[in-house]
């Protein structure tokens, strides 16, 4: 496990089109950007094995339900499953079922989407604004809150919840966007992005 911070991505970044396997669907259907609705969008890069993700799974469950009237949630796992079979689509499906997650949980098999968003760690949180024009633009990219395994801060989701409030109230970009921290994304050997060290 390499402790890794999320990277800077310019606010206002436009969500690229995508299509990936939805491991949380009944018939292994694909989910794409055209399946998104008119709500704002929370994208989170997570996985099944990461201890940082396991630490906040309950908060993910609570948060996604608390914000669902105005924000849709989509989870993505981009880890290489040859080197990390514990993050296979089957394992992601088991994780979602165990946690009672009903939101799409996508498998980024070729890691192109993770690279496009400069995703670096699990968990990594992106909040996109949808101003009803079908174009999702990045409003917040950062941590869930200050809590980490072993630091004795309570898990509250306060940073991300505050960003959702700002978005819903049409406030300007949150000024305090602290990077997330977690395990590095497990890139396919030989195909690591330029920023990965």
Record keyword descriptors for this entry.
197 residues; alpha+beta; Glutaredoxin; 7-stranded mixed sheet; 22% helix; globular
Order of adjacent strands in the largest pleated sheet: 3-2-6-5-4-8-9
Rg to the nearest angstrom?
A: 15 Å
Structural class: alpha+beta
The biggest sheet, with number of strands, parallel, antiparallel or mixed sense and barrel status, is: 7 strands, mixed
Average pLDDT confidence is 93
Task: State the end-to-end distance.
Answer: 13 Å
The H/E string reads EEEEHEHEHEEEHE
Would you give an account of this structure?
- This protein has helices at 51-66, 89-99, 112-116, 158-168, and strands spanning 3-5, 19-22, 30-32, 40-45, 71-77, 105-107, 121-122, 124-130, 136-142, 181-184.
- By secondary structure, it is an alpha+beta fold.
- It has one domain: 3-Layer(aba) Sandwich (Glutaredoxin).
- The strands form two sheets. A seven-stranded mixed beta sheet has the order 3-2-6-5-4-8-9, with helices on one face.
Summarize the structure.
This protein has 197 residues and is α+β, with helices and mostly antiparallel strands. It contains four helices and ten strands; from the N terminus they run ββββαβαβαβββαβ. The strands form two sheets. Strands 3-2-6-5-4-8-9 form a seven-stranded mixed sheet, covered by helices on one side.
Topology (elements, then pairings):
Elements (H helix, E strand, L loop, with lengths): L2 E3 L13 E4 L7 E3 L7 E6 L5 H16 L4 E7 L11 H11 L5 E3 L4 H5 L4 E2 L1 E7 L5 E7 L15 H11 L12 E4 L13
Parallel strand pairs: 4-5, 5-6
Antiparallel strand pairs: 1-10, 2-3, 2-6, 4-8, 7-10, 8-9
